[in-house]
Write a structure and sequence with these properties.
24% of the residues lie in helices and 24% in strands. It is built from eight helices and 21 strands. The longest helix has 18 residues, at 247-264. It is globular.
Amino acid sequence: MARVDVVMPQMGESIAEGTLSRWLKKVGDTVKRDEPIFEISTDKVDAEIPSPSSGTLAEVLVQEGQTVPVATVVARLETEVGAAVTASAPAAPAAVPSKGEAVKAPEPVKAKAPPSAAPVARSGGGAVATGNGGNGNSLEDRLRTRSSPLVRKIAAEHGVEIAGLKGSGIAGRVTKRDLMQFLESGGAQGGRSMYAPGPDLHGLTIEPWPGDKVETMSKIRQITSDHMVVARRHAAHVTSFFEIDLTRISRLRQKMRAQFEAQTGQKLTFLPFIVRTVVAALKQHPVLNAAHTENQVIYRKQYNIGIAVALDWGLIVPVIKHAEDLSLSGITKSLNDLADRARTKRLKPDEVQGATFTITNPGVFGSLAGTPIIPAGTSAILGLGAIEKRPKVVAGPDGEDVIAIRTCAYFSLSFDHRIVDGADADKFLATLKRGLETYPESES
């Protein structure tokens, strides 16, 4: 018999640690190679991690809820000598092969030793400002300032020197949670953040009452919480609403539905029509596909559409990359594939990054309209209300007013007023409305 180490994988270049959220196997269980063995959460994605080898789970070294550096040994497998490999869990969940495609085993990868010999536990305290940030040349300084791009971006926007903070990550590495706690405590901009809450909220503590049920937030819920706070403080939020008549889209969908589903094997919903029309409208109104940084506006030339997906354990936003290059069937396949893999925790880190514009669809739960929060690094997010039949006054064949039943929905656009004026937002919505209400059958 031989022992094989199972390690915490690196789920992206900028990710230095992960939280082991759940063991899918227990000590003594038999596991097959590539069978999911545990779940992890990072600041990018939740994922199931496959076993690097067949064997028996002999030892669990990291418990559920622990956060450890990349390459930390989390468990050991006991395998037959012939099956032993020097390998770690893959850096990303294995892709599901298409029909007829052979499953290709991942190449063995030797695990790199973590920067510290022993895992460093995440402390309960937040980041603390220190009097001396160091010269940046020591190993400790370099490790501490090697934070994720998101942390560095937030720090830059709030005037925070990362080297001047003491973090709770490995070797004092400043994590996003450390930075958020520092900002919420009134740090930055010479000791106080321009976004910090007022003194009435400082140090606010909520205590449970007798009979209350108390649950620790899941990793994805904590991440969502942090992202929402950052995004809300970062942008100047304004929301506009348009009612859009989707009767034409509804009729086109019904007309082509059977043939489309027979040819592609995909269910055809309203959303692919909306995504395609959104991309066309963004091309005409590029500030809605832009980002704000200091005194600059970055106009993105890629159209990467984030689609919010509600999961039982939280919210995630997979991204359709280069949506401008996709047909209606291509968008449909991407939507269904990303949503399915989001629900089964098989998304890769780069599939939840890089959105230039986001669509959220609370209407599927019956909501008529909402004011969604703009994701950081973008200038707008579109909210789709419930699609329903409504009586509307329309022009009859002779020009007279008649009441007709139309399929309609309210569309809300939250936009960053620092770079998007109300006129820009409303022109975008008007273009989107016109595009959907006159959608050409030739593009179906």
